[in-house]
Every structure is written in C-alpha cells, then in structure tokens.
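haha ok so turns out i had the wrong file open the whole time. this is the CORRECT one, sorry everyone. sequence first:
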Amino acid sequence: MTGGQNLNIVWHFTAPHSTTSFRYFITKDGWDSTKPLTRASLDLAPFAQQNYNGRQPSNPTTHPGTLPQRHGRHILLSVWDIADTENAFYQCADLDFG
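then structure:
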C-alpha cells in the first residue's frame, strides 16, 4: 500500500441490515503490533465514511477511500453501524505500507 492511494472496500452481505454508516479507521504510526489492538492505537477520526441514514446498502456494495500517509505495517478497522439495533459489525485487515 502507499499513503494517498485510493482504496475500494467491497462488502458482500449474507444478511442485509438497515444501516447508519460504515466507518474506516487505521492505526497510528508508531502503534505497537505486539500488544492488543486498542482504541488508542487508532486515529480518532475515520479516514473514510459512508452514511446510509437507515437505508440498506446494495449487495455487494463498494466504498471508496484515500489511505492516509503511513509507514510499515498497519491495521485497517472497518465498522458497520446497524440502524435498527445497537449492534455493529467489525472487520480488520492487515496493511503493509512497505
């Protein structure tokens, strides 16, 4: 990966839900990969967000984003916020910025 690179994140759903938003976070430079991932390891603001205001996303759906500048290995945390419950779904992916 390269900082500033465009990234398309694709979701395939087995059970669609009314959705508040999808938010995408990335770890800060200098985070400690030998320790459990915590909120303090992540940037506070998402680098990309798609709001649905209670609508169901198409299946599949794709969200564009631009990766922030980073170096080394990082974690991408995706949060799918459900509108009609207090639930959310979380996905993590490893990223290598060389």
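The radius of gyration is 14 Å.
again sry for the mixup
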